[in-house]
């Protein structure tokens, strides 16, 4: 009996890691890209919520979930562009502007989203990998959404292109030492604006996953701070896209550990488990930070380092 | 001229707000009028506004004071909720004191807890090199998780069924309003204003404040002068955290009556923006907090009269702050252009003189 409980628990945990971790994956890839260019965007939280709302609304109106995903990315792109452009003005603090954008994004989403709380939009399809098993819990655990696979492919692609393509190297150069990039004839501000906009796109897509797959409806309590957590997650992942994938799974699993424990009948300490990713990130930072030395692997131009 | 960007941003954000509502066929100008009426239009509106401004003043100080020493702390929310929780649970252990003494003890313990929490950030940064912005964000989330765990678990009042809370405060421990007839705002407002004025004296008119400015301006210069940089930084963090913790105590003892999830409504987040809008000047914080409190207070009127959702005030706040940050930079740039233009004109004039 104990064995069975343990298997159920592990399965619930694994399924939860993928299910809860997918939005983390997209938002953290977006934040990773932004931070690689030397900016930090705390507004991804607002973009995530706006993406969730716009994705849901467009999916409902157009009848196609994928159109919704694209629209969510589009609104993310716009808001990211706004962040990128305004923070390119002299002396604008990117952290403060990110928080202002967070208020604006959530405000717009809540305002415009009032009409879409009731209706039911089409959901994103998922791929069933559990058809071979006749255990229903196994089947449902292996029911994995398309966006997860896209996210994995994206993480691998970004990982490769940040090391081996021209634009990846330019992005990293701008983020590490913008004077050198300028000396080579690139325009750091333009690169940063583009990186922030693309980062916004990814965060918007992450938001659409929330409203179009899991939990799978639009309401005002949809996001539990995934956009802000992404900042911590990127540090945890040491600014490596592939690590973002593992880190998202860890963050997702720790979000799923409470419900997973509930599925085997343990219900105490729910909130403490949800704090596990922060404690983990804190420990990682403590282990790698020293006074007079910045975080290893952090882009040199990041305002966190100056 | 610090007033110019503020004026421009108020104008432009209200213009965008009108545009946003008009595009949806909502009565836009009526909404703007109602924002002012709901915020500052009557004594009731003023009371509502100031009631909401009080915690913002204190949480903004949690950003402004460390900012003088060059730190960006964004974890005031954590200090607020833990301070509130400490204040709410203290009377359970500390019985038998007269109400006033208990209240003072509650305030002190809230300030202590908040001060320790943000002070920890300063300490981690100075001693371990942990970035304070991310560190305070993480600690804030840890604080909120701890708060939820304690309020829904060990410290939960079994009789609070739908909304988990700690045991409610007895009536004598509820802080009343300043004047029952003419000014129904709780004493947290007075605490907020006093704290802001004290902070202003500290940063503008004391040797310590000057030392802080040196640390914030150039750490190496401060070290060369022999200033105790670590101690100064941690000191501002502790003070800021104490202010946020005190805000939590007032929310518990003047508004909620117990510690529950209603404490986590984003006073910490709004406080960050208030502080940035005030350019970390403690006196300007009083004004900015009142403005933001006013916008929040007008929400119910907008909802009642025009059937606008409560997120309307959130949009207005977002517009105001994005515009403010943008205008501040733009005005700086315009001034730069003007200087460049004048220089150019002078050059042309000089050239003409030489040629002539």
Number of domains of chain B: 1
Overall radius of gyration of chain B: 23 Å
CATH architecture of chain B: Orthogonal Bundle
Stated plainly, the CATH topology of chain B is called ABC transporter involved in vitamin B12 uptake, BtuC
The chain-level structural class of chain B is mainly alpha
Q: Return the average pLDDT of chain A rounded to an integer.
A: 88
Number of helical stretches of at least 4 residues of chain A? 13
Widest sheet: strand ordering of chain B? 1-2
Q: Which class best fits the helix and strand makeup of chain A?
A: mainly alpha
Question: What is the level 1 CATH name of chain B?
Answer: Mainly Alpha
**Average pLDDT for all residues of chain B:** 91
Give a short account of the largest sheet of chain A. Answer: 2 strands, antiparallel
Terminal-residue CA separation of chain B: 38 Å
Task: Count every beta strand of chain A, where a strand is a DSSP E run of 2 or more residues.
Answer: 2
**Uncertain stretches of chain B:** none
Spatial order of strands in the largest sheet of chain A: 1-2
User: What best-fitting shape of chain B do the alpha-carbon axes yield?
Assistant: globular
How many beta-strand runs of chain B? 2
Counting copies of identical and different chains, the oligomeric state is: heterodimer
Largest interface: A-B, 54 and 49 residues
Strand content of chain B is: under 5%
């Amino acid at each position: 009996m104990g064995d069975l409980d343990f298997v159920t628990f592990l399965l619930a945990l694994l399924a939860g890691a993928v299910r809860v971790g997918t939005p983390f994956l997209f938002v953290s890839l977006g934040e990773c890209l932004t931070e690689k260019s030397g900016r930090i965007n705390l507004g991804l939280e607002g973009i995530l919520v706006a993406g969730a709302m716009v994705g849901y609304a467009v999916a409902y109106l157009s009848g196609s979930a994928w159109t919704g995903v694209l629209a969510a990315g589009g609104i993310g792109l716009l808001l990211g562009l706004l962040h990128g452009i305004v923070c390119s003005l002299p002396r604008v603090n990117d952290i403060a502007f990110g928080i202002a954008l967070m208020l604006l994004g959530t405000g717009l989403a809540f305002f415009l989203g009032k009409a879409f709380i009731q209706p039911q939009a089409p959901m994103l399809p998922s791929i069933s990998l559990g058809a071979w098993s006749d255990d229903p819990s196994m089947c449902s655990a292996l029911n994995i959404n398309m966006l997860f696979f896209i996210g994995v492919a994206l993480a691998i692609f970004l990982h490769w292109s940040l090391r081996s393509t021209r634009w990846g190297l330019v992005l990293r150069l701008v983020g590490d030492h913008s004077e050198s990039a300028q000396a080579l004839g690139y325009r750091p501000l333009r690169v940063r604006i583009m990186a922030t906009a693309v980062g916004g796109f990814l965060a918007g897509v992450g938001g659409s996953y929330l409203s179009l797959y899991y939990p799978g409806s639009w309401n005002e309590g949809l996001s539990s701070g995934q956009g802000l957590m992404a900042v911590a997650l990127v540090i945890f992942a040491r600014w490596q896209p592939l690590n973002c994938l593992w880190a998202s799974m860890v963050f997702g699993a720790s979000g799923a550990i409470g419900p997973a424990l509930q599925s085997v009948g343990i219900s105490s300490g729910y909130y403490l488990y949800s704090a596990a990713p922060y404690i983990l990130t804190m420990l990682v930072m403590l282990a790698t930070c020293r006074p007079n030395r910045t975080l290893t692997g952090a882009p040199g131009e990041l305002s966190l380092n100056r | 001229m610090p007033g110019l960007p503020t004026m421009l941003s108020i104008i432009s954000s209200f213009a965008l707000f009108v545009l946003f509502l008009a595009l949806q066929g909502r009565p836009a100008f009526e909404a703007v009028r109602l924002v002012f009426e709901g915020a500052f239009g009557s004594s009731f509106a003023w009371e509502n506004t100031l009631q909401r401004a009080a915690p913002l003043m204190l949480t903004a100080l949690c950003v402004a004071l460390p900012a003088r020493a060059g730190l960006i702390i964004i974890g005031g929310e954590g200090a607020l909720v833990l301070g509130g929780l400490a204040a709410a649970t203290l009377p359970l252990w500390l019985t038998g004191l007269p109400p006033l003494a208990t209240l003072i003890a509650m305030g002190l313990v809230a300030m202590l807890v908040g001060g320790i929490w943000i002070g920890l950030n300063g300490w981690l940064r100075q001693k371990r090199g942990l970035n304070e912005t991310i560190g305070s964000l993480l600690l804030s989330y840890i604080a909120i998780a701890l708060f939820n765990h304690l309020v829904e678990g060990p410290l939960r009042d079994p009789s609070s069924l739908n909304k988990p809370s700690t045991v409610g405060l007895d009536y004598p421990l509820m802080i009343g309003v300043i004047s029952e007839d003419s000014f129904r705002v709780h004493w947290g407002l007075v605490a907020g204003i006093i704290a802001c004025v004290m902070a202003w004296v500290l940063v503008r008119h004391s040797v310590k404040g000057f030392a802080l400015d040196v640390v914030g301006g150039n750490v190496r210069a401060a070290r060369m002068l022999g200033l105790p940089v670590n101690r100064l930084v941690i000191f501002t963090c502790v003070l800021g955290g104490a202010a946020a913790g005190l805000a939590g105590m007032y929310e518990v003892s003047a508004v909620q009556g117990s510690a529950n999830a209603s404490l986590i409504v984003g006073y910490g987040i709004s406080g960050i923006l208030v502080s940035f809008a005030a350019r970390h000047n403690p006196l300007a914080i009083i004004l900015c907090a009142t403005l933001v409190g006013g916008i929040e207070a007008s929400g119910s009127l907008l909802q009642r009269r025009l059937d606008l959702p409560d997120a309307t005030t959130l949009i207005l706040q977002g517009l105001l702050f994005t515009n403010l940050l943008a205008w501040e930079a733009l005005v700086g740039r315009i001034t730069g252009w003007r200087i460049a233009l004048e220089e150019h004109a002078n050059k042309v004039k000089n050239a003409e003189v030489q040629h002539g």
